[in-house]
Amino acid sequence: MATRKPATAKAPESICILRIDLAHLKPPVWRRLEVPANITLTQLHRVIQMAFDWDDSHMHSFEIAGRRYGQAMPDPFGVDLDELDERKFLLRDVAGVGNRFTYTYDFGDDWHHLVKVEKILAPTPGTRYPRCTAGKNAAPPEDCGGPWGYAEMVQALADPDYPGRDELLEWLDENFDPTEFDRDKLNIELGMLKV
């Protein structure tokens, strides 16, 4: 009886280098990611979720060249969202070098991720993609009130006398450090993604 070799992932033909910044935040929060150019926007959504430590518990969409891409689910209120199905579009087909677009996550907190395609290169042999090559600061926790709620949280963390500090930080992990970013840990997590 012949044994089957385990399937190996096909190396991507090209890699997009993306710089992703969370809008309206001080201190800035950003990541530089290398992703296969042939991933779907759904797969890119998963990569961004992991890169910013989100839980994927809210709606999201991409706005690229005036077109909106998302989960393309029927609206229960009958509103036509004019949203294209992100599962059907590859990153390489909707964005090229120098293009900028927006990924919005959690329409209540309204996290706008500004994405720029910095370069498209050939992959490095033996390198696993997606991967993070740089970044700065911790991503805000889920449901913290968007950029303005997060700014208040950062102030409260820095000032023990901040009014309402105890209530504001009650649900926050006591070890949360807004300046922390662990690229190695993120790359281990990204290595487990199936893209």
Poorly predicted spans: 1-9
Average pLDDT, to the nearest integer?
89
Strand order of the largest sheet: 5-4-3-6-7-1-2-8
Tell me the fraction of residues in β-strands, as a range: 25-35%
Question: What class would the helix/strand composition place it in?
Answer: alpha+beta
How are helices and strands ordered from N to C? Answer: EEHEEEHEEEHHH
What is the CATH superfamily classification of the domain at 15-137 and 182-190? MM3350-like
Level-2 CATH architecture of the domain at 15-137 and 182-190: Roll
Task: Describe what you observe in this structure.
The chain is α+β, with helices and mostly antiparallel strands and 195 residues long. The protein is built from 5 helices and 8 strands; from the N terminus they run ββαβββαβββααα. Strands 5-4-3-6-7-1-2-8 form an 8-stranded mixed sheet. The radius of gyration is 19 Å and the shape is globular. Mean pLDDT is 89; it is low at 1-9.
